[in-house]
Amino acid sequence: MVEFALILPVLVLLALGAVDVAKAINYWNDSTHLANEAARYAAVNNSPSKQADGVTPVADSLATAIKDQADTAELASNVHVYICAPVTGHTDVGDEIRVTVTSLYNWSAVLIPLNLNQQITASATMRIEKKFNNGAPGTVDAYHLDTYDPTTKQCKP
Question: Could you state, in order of their start, the residue ranges of all structural domains in the chain?
Answer without folding.
Answer: 2-156
